[in-house]
Amino acid sequence: MTKKAERTTAYIIETVAPIFNKFGYVGTSMSDLTEATGLTKGAIYGNFENKEALALSAFEYNRNHLLGVIDEKLAVDGTALEKLFSLMAFYRQYDVFSLPLGGCPILNVGVDAQNNNTLLVAAVKETIKDIEGKIALVLENGANKGEIRLPVPPLQFAKQLFTMVQGAIAMSTMTRDRKYLINTMTYLEHLVQGEIKK
Q1: For residue 136, what is the enclosing H or E element?
Q2: Sign of dihedral through CA atoms 68, 70, 74, 76?
Q3: pLDDT tens, 178-195?
Q4: With the C-alpha atoms ordered 171, 175, 181, 183, is the resulting torsion angle positive or negative?
Q5: Which residues contact 108 (CB under 8 A, 6 or more apart)?
Q6: Residues 133 and 155: beta-carbon distance below 8 Å
Q7: What is the CATH number of the domain that holds 108?
Q8: pTM metric for this prediction
Q9: Domain containing 175: what range?
């Protein structure tokens, strides 16, 4: 692939990622994509096999952006607790972070693709597993270093924590009320302090 073709492909993905995320796979029309990119249908499909391949690339773009920030928040210096608090501080502002993405890619694509796109559903499930795994690793390392005590296995705790985070994102998105996000993160901070702090 030439440099120009690579740039065009990257431009298309970056431009259409928030559109697919906001309107969904079925809800995004070809005219939405040509209008946003300023390219013809032929120019877009010269870079992607079909709409499904483009939608998957768009999700992966948003997913990689999100995972990059999660990695950054969990990589802060300090104890396992400090790393978890760093992650929760990020999720407290998640609505602001996800606005340019067209909303939460996990929630939006996960729900939208459920009955119409198995590839996207699989990609969302993989992303959820990735995030839960990253949180579990922080917990496991913290327990091994004697920084925290875990009442359940690390992955089980990570899954429960992330379930509450995603639930808060869903409620905040559906009601357009960010208090769901803020209050849940405050509750999770208290929970983490009480449950796993040594």
Answers
A1: helix 118-144
A2: positive
A3: 999 999 999 999 999 988
A4: negative
A5: 21, 22, 24, 102
A6: yes
A7: 1.10.357.10
A8: 0.94
A9: 1-196
